[in-house]
Amino acid sequence: MSPFLLLSALAAPIAAAPTDETQSIVVTAAREPLAEEEAPASVTTFDSETIDRLGLAGGADLLRLSAGVSVATTGPRGTQTQLRIRGAEANHSLLFVDGIRFNDPAAGNEARFELLTTDALSRVEIVRGPQSALWGSEALGGVVALETADPLGPRRLSALGEYGSFDSGRAALQFASGGETAGLSGSASWIGSDGIDSFGAGGERDGFETVNASLKGAVHPSADTEIGLVGHWMEGESEYDGFDPITFRRADTLDETANRIRAARGWARAEAAGWSLLAELGWLDSANRNRLDDERLNSTFGERLSAGAQLSRTLGGHRMTAAVEHEAEDFRARDQVYLGGTDQNRGRHLTALVGEWHARWSGLVSTDLAVRHDAFSAFADATTFRAAAVVMPAQGWRLHAAYGEGIAQPTFYDLYGFFPGSFLGNPALRPESSRGWEAGIRWEKRTLTLGVTGFSNRLRDEIVDTFDPLTFQSSTANAEGRSRRRGIEAEAAWRPSDAFGLALNYSWLDAEERQDAGDLAVREIRRPRHSVNLVASGTRGRLSWGGSAAYIGARHDTDFDPFPARDFRLDDYLLASLRLSWTLSDGLEAYGRVENGFDSDYQDVIGYNTPGRAVYAGFRFRLGH
After folding, report:
1. Residues 480, 516: contact at Cβ < 8 Å?
2. CA 169, CA 207: separation in Å to the nearest integer?
3. Which of 34, 493, 520, 573 has the least CB density, counted as fewest CB within 10 Å?
4. C-alpha 191: how far from chain center
5. Partner residues linked to 366 by β-bridges
6. Is 491 left (phi over 0), alpha (psi -120 to 50) or beta?
7. Neighbouring residues of 560: CB distance < 8 A, sequence distance ≥ 6
8. What is the per-residue DSSP string for 472-490?
9. Parallel, antiparallel, or unpaired: how do β-strands 530-540 and 573-585 relate?
10. Is 516 exposed, middle or buried (0-12, 13-18, 19+ CB in 10 A)?
């Protein structure tokens, strides 16, 4: 038996960051929340204490510390940031923020991770592997779920101010006011910086500014009912270096982009005699505007309306869940460069039916089966399936195996093109699909947890660009070949006391793509074969601290400056951060932190530089907990 097959028989979810209290509930590994030990998938969680102690401002910097996750930023903070789970594509990760689907239909179905900050977050959950049988399109590589503060509970207030390298500033405010039956929570944050010259040729600095705000309310008319409403506003502006309009090569330009996302969700839940009913409505509106030296170039706009209902019935150790979802998406594109030649208005919708059966057969064995059918208006329908089993043969031991399928729908440009007569769409496209498995083991005793995960996935019908040299027309098509992604994730966590806790993970990834069945497989770009993450934190007396180290192995990228384009190797690098906080008085603390502590000189995307060592200092004031 090969070493890969031997190790890939082992897998288990494990908390990626040390916490004082174990996170016992997993939200998105099933249609209803589950105890972590029964979660039928590999899961990483970061709780509020770990988020605060690390002090990382960017949401992507925190997500990077999870096993199986790779992040690529096109230059300094604020520029396009792509996240890939287990080697999947950038639009194969589904993002939820307080239960709202946050992937942007006006940005190629990708989530705008560059707009996410950590200041409002109370919990982060990453579920790895195909989850489309539960959540539909984009949940092909995995699911990221972010939560803001619970509006219920005691009153609390938190405010911080920070200044540091690259003329960077940061301010944030959080509050919650209510009780056990009704409450309101909210947040507002701002981060800005003069940035660096991302092209690195001695040109102007490329800065950014990001503003986030949220408001959440919940009411419990009775012990078994809840009504809630949440809204989010995310807005960012960033400067970046683009391409010379004559040579089409990377150049020190005055490009700017402004992005905005507004979203809201309302829900009502009732439980009685083993029954649980959930009804919800969601809305997301996005706008992306590009400028060059204050001259407007083009804009895209997206809107998503969603409605869903879910009914669950619990009988003994069995829970049956049925759900129906409907989504309607609109897309608008406008340009000034081509005199409106790329303008278009498009729309599409889907209706989905979901069924799940979670069974706890005994204290030793639980299983989970899920199936979903998506009926799309603009392309072929899709049915996805997931099956998983968890076995706990002895105290402290957990075995887990799962098979899952995932899909990712074509983008609006894939279907309808970009420039009439030049880049034509393909309405006959099928959704990209993936099939894969994982299996594993975890051992836990007192303060120590060890686990190892193996997985293998095959991507089919990958959507690729095509070019006809006779007509000079470009389009899209489903590739005939299959792309393979397989790997191993090893994790360990140790917390001997509140003063010290440590978590470590290592990921090995083999990701290759093949566009035609007869072609040789080539290595996927921007995916490290090896990555290692370390997270440590603790508190002792007045001192609180948190640190992280992320080693990102060598990756490949494509350099389009020469003709023909050539493969380029991006060197490995190490990112280290540290935050130290000292309590000055009740509710007031002073802190200092450093990012990229070893001053690594690296690129995530060829041709775009990233910040060196950065040092920050600030104050935080708190009332309540």
Report:
1. yes
2. 12
3. 520
4. 20
5. 360, 390
6. beta
7. none
8. TEEEEEE-SS-EEEEEEEE
9. unpaired
10. exposed
pLDDT tens-digit series, residues 580-591: 999 999 999 999
Alpha helix stretches (DSSP H) within 481-582: none
Rg of the Cα atoms in the chain: 24
CA-based nearest residue to 29, from 129, 173, 138: 129
The answer to whether 382 and 374 are in contact (CB under 8 A) is yes
Both tokens of residue 181?
A: 């039956």
List C-alpha distances in Å: 207 to 210, 236, 255: 11, 11, 11
Polymer length of the chain: 625
Question: What would the two tokens of residue 337 be?
Answer: 């460069």
CA–CA distance, 474 with 346 (Å, rounded to integer):
20
Chain segment 29-69, per-residue pLDDT in tens: 999 999 888 899 999 999 999 999 999 999 999 999 999 99
In tens, the pLDDT along 290-299 reads 999 889 999 9
For residue 73, which amino acid is it?
A: T
| Residues forming beta bridges with residue 459, ordered by sequence position | 434, 483
Residue 344, H or E segment: strand 344-360
Contacts of 182 (CB under 8 A, 6+ apart): 152, 217, 218, 219, 220
Is the pTM of the predicted complex or chain greater than 0.85? yes
| Residues 600, 601, 606, 611, CA torsion sign | positive
424 and 473 Cβ atoms separated by less than 8 Å: yes
132 neighbors 80 (Cβ within 8 angstroms) = no
489 forms beta bridges with 453, 507
